[in-house]
Amino acid sequence: MALFANLKKVVFVLSLALFLACGGIKKIVQKTNSTADTTTEKDTLKITKPIEEKATDLLVEKTGSPEEKSATPKTQPVIPPEAFDHEIWNTLLQKHVSQNGAVNYKGFKKDGSKLKIYLNTLAKHIPTEQWSRYDTLAYWINVYNAFTVALILDNYPVNSIKDIKNPWDLRFFKLGTKWYSLNDIEHNILRKIEDPRIHFGINCASVSCPKLLNKAFTAQNVDKELENLTIDFINNPEKNTISANKVEISKIFTWFAKDFKTKGTLIDFLNTYSKISIHNNAQKSFKKYNWKLNE
């Protein structure tokens, strides 16, 4: 009996040895390797995927997608605020002056209280050294035009500004602590800025004058508007008749001749803005000035 039991043990050991010799170890090793590979792959995904996502997020945050970049507006330059607010004057001009410069003085008279507010505000805020050149230029042109309108309204109805006694030499308005006339503004301030285009921005309330712009001058628009007004005036056949060999031009060009010759001859100045090229030796004459009120 004991012999039989020992024989069974020997057979079991031999069978186990045979199993191992025939590939059991190989299967165990393959299973172990497969588990190790799966674990490595799984562990690798846990590490690399967040890194890849983070890197992509950083790229988008830094550069943006093509769609986002194209949709993003370009940075606009910062425009400093105006040194003076001309909005009241702008509103009045839009309301009472036509596109071609005809002035509704009756309408202005009805809005006299608003005009007075604007004039009083001008009187309390004179340009300082901190103001830009354009702020200063816009201020003084608006002063000239607004007080010219005020002068007409004080004497309205009137057929011509020349029906008023000494209209340009009359010191009828005060800015700060000083009294001014229209001539003070034009000759002692505006002309000293040495920009001949100011002659097409200021208005003398007459038909032959350059038109009164139906908007206020501001630091942002004064250069552009003076350029447009100069072009408009010189090429207006009612103000100037121009051909290559002969010009019949406004008397403004003889009254202030020196202002138009700072960078050449008068013909040079005209040719800068004229749509018709004028010969240097073209014959010059001057139109009769119409002082009738520009209404």
Give a description of the structure:
The chain is mostly helical. It has a domain at 87-286. The protein has 10 helices and 5 strands; from the N terminus they run ααααααββααββααβ. The strands form 2 sheets. A 3-stranded mixed β-sheet has the order 3-4-5. It has a two-stranded antiparallel ribbon with strand order 1-2. Helix 6 (133-155) packs antiparallel against helix 7. Mean pLDDT is 82; it is low at 1-5 and 18-74.
Keywords:
disordered N terminus, 295 residues, 10 helices, 52% helix, two-stranded antiparallel sheet, mainly alpha, 3-stranded mixed beta sheet
Query: Roughly what fraction of the amino acids lie in strands?
Result: 5-15%
Q: How much helix is in the residues?
A: 40-55%
Overall mean pLDDT:
82
**Number of β-strand runs:** 5
Radius of gyration: 44 Å
- Span between N and C termini? 144 Å
Biggest sheet: strands side by side, in what order? 3-4-5
Number of helices: 10
Question: Could you state the order of secondary-structure elements as H and E?
Answer: HHHHHHEEHHEEHHE
User: What is the overall silhouette?
Assistant: globular
Largest sheet: 3 strands, mixed
Which stretches of 5+ consecutive residues score pLDDT under 50? 1-5, 18-74
Structural class based on helices, strands and sheet pairing: mainly alpha
